[in-house]
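fyi for ur records
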Amino acid sequence: MVSRKQRIPFCDLSKLDAKDQEMAERAKVNGQVLNLFKVLLNHPRLVRNWGRFGNYILQGSTLSAREREIAILRIGWRNQAQYEWEQHVLVGKRAGLSDAEIEQITKGPKAGWKRHEAALVQAADDLFENSVISDETWKILSENYNTQQMMDLVFSIGQYNLVSWVLNSFGVPLDDFLPGAQKK
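which gave:
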């Protein structure tokens, strides 16, 4: 993963209005507002509107949590977004991914996956490389996914491609509880 310096400072959370203070409260893990939100709350209106979509992807999507996390981790890996990767390794483990499977994600679609899961990894690669899921990958995914799941997959990968760009461009530092933060 590529190290990036912080370009946008943390928001002074004490200066937020009550509505935005509530938003900050909802972005806490281990009693601390996630660094991503400390940066994004410099633009509360943006984060409030983006958050609706992000919450759908994480909590309302037609994809299983496990399959969603395979796709998210792969696009985060391809973008070399360390913050994205480390946060979603934890989410992926809660969704049932093993350490070996998380390592497989870094190796790509030919790393011993079952057919459908290999296609999930390939979908992220296709979108990263060509901005379109290939016909072959689409066909494999369509064997198990209905139209809504196909749509949710593309939107999920797109959402976390965007999140990777945000994290990398803004230089959001790792939260203290993430393993990479403890190595620095």
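The longest helix spans residues 147-170. thats all i got for now
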